[in-house]
Specification:
Layout: E1 12-13, H1 16-19, H2 24-39, H3 41-45, H4 47-66, E2 73-76, H5 79-89, E3 97-101, H6 106-119, E4 122-126, H7 135-145, E5 150-156, H8 168-176, E6 181-185, H9 197-200, E7 204-208, E8 220-224, H10 250-256, H11 264-267, H12 269-279, H13 283-306, E9 320-326, H14 340-348, E10 350-351, E11 354-356, E12 362-368, H15 375-388
Parallel strand pairs: 1-10, 3-4, 3-5, 5-6, 6-7
Antiparallel strand pairs: 2-8, 7-8, 9-12, 11-12
Helix pairs in contact: 5-6, 7-8, 12-13, 13-15, 14-15
The protein binds pyridoxal-5'-phosphate.
Protein name: Isopenicillin N epimerase
Organism: Novipirellula galeiformis
Keywords: Isomerase, Pyridoxal phosphate
Length: about 400
């Protein structure tokens, strides 16, 4: 599999999760689109000439993959933009409450705080332990923060630093039973876990294409339930705000054009999806299952090699694996520049992130298992960690 990516073969690259990595064939397709664009920029980029039809085709391909109505699907640069558009459009009032979790992505939790502060609303944080016992613990922690003032729950589908697949269906059912809207930050989800937005029935769902769908950087989507589409505006207001379009919703028109941009990452998305779909006989489902199994094997290797018990239920694992480590493990005491992440990179040529822990005095080491990774890389990581952490 490695031959299909440009990843430096001398590197054990175990961090697909942060920014993804694009297969060469998809980069070539994108370059062809760039060449086409540059050969006649106005024709390609003027929204009502070629751009909107091109984006509509991408919308159709994507909507099939995530089981959604294409009319409900807007494009954004990334999940951070999707979350910001929803939160900054949301009609929050003084005293309202938004519930987020302590596993939430910092940038997106910041966006919730920003929107809340402007409206005089408050953000409550559901505290979920790590390691977590099971999905019920996540739902319970969120339920504890709900009140009759809660207007929205924002939750990750796959958490960033802890790499957990959250029970978004159960969380949605819980919130909807109380008339609370749900915003799912699915940044990592497409290409990692099966998605069916029609069934899920959330209010808003945003995700990245450039992570596990292996599309070129940068692009993502924002799905909005038809009921809220007239309310949700992009953070960047542009031409479509005062230019009525008889045959197009303002929702699509506003998100499709937020100023001059490079649409080729989006136009190349069907090529990335095609790459994932056609590789194995079982299509993208088989691709995801292989990554998932590799993640479970990796968790077993890390747990056994480091002598730690991370009994995360398999249903809460996609293709990210996180293990908690003591705070200063692998770092020279008192040297803030000497992080475990840096030492892995500099001494072992292993690239994987080490994040601040959820629990006090802990840090989190996360590995990503994409098709170009293998268990030999994880074994090398275990050897390096045993050395750095003085595991005997
Ligand atoms: C859960 C989650 N949300 C949002 C993001 C932000 O992604 P982006 O920087 O592409 O907006 C990430 C990135 O890792 C993430 O893990």
């Amino acid at each position: 599999m490695k031959q299909h990516w440009k990843i430096d073969p001398r590197l054990d690259f175990l961090n697909h999760g942060s920014f993804g990595a694009v297969p060469t064939v998809v980069l070539q397709a994108q370059q062809a689109f760039r060449d086409e664009l540059e050969s006649d920029p106005i024709r390609y980029l003027a929204p009502e000439r070629e751009l909107e039809p091109k984006l509509d085709y991408v919308r159709d391909v994507l909507s099939e993959l995530i089981v959604a109505d294409a009319a409900d699907l807007a494009f954004v640069l990334n999940a951070t933009a999707g979350v910001n558009a929803v939160l900054r459009s949301f009609p929050l009032r003084d005293g309202d409450e938004i519930v987020v979790t302590n596993h939430g992505y910092n940038a997106c939790n910041n966006a919730a705080h920003y929107a809340a502060e402007r409206a005089g609303a408050i953000v409550r944080t559901a505290e979920i332990p790590f390691p977590v016992g099971g999905p019920g613990q996540v739902v319970d922690a969120i339920e504890q923060q709900l009140s009759d003032r809660t207007r929205m729950v924002m939750v990750d589908h796959v958490t960033s630093s802890t790499g957990l697949v959250f029970p978004v269906q159960a969380i949605t059912d819980l919130a909807h039973a109380r008339n609370i809207r749900v915003l799912v930050d699915g940044a990592h989800a497409p290409g990692m876990v099966p998605l069916n937005l029609a069934e899920l029935g959330v209010d808003y769902y945003t995700a990245n294409h450039h992570k596990w769908l292996c599309a070129p950087k940068v692009s993502g989507f924002l799905w909005v339930h038809p009921q809220w589409q007239s309310e949700v505006r992009p953070t960047i207001i542009s031409h479509a705000a005062n230019r009525p379009r008889p045959n197009r919703s303002r929702f699509l028109a506003e998100f499709d054009w937020q100023g001059t941009f490079d649409p080729t990452p989006l136009v190349a998305l069907p090529h990335a999806i095609e790459f994932l779909q056609s590789f194995y006989a079982g299509g993208i489902d088989e691709w995801m299952a292989i990554n998932h199994n590799r993640a479970l094997d990796s968790l077993a290797l890390l747990s056994a090699g480091l002598g730690i018990d991370v009994s995360t239920p398999a249903e809460m694992i996609g293709s990210l694996v996180t293990v908690p480590l003591p705070l200063h493990a692998g770092s020279e005491a008192g040297n803030a520049n000497d992080s475990l992440q840096q030492r892995l990179r500099e001494h072992y040529r292993i690239e994987c992130p080490v994040f601040a822990g959820i629990e006090p005095e802990s840090q989190l080491l996360r590995i990503s298992l994409q098709a170009y990774n293998d268990l030999e890389q994880v074994k090398r990581l275990v050897v390096a960690l045993r050395q750095e952490l003085d595991v005997t």
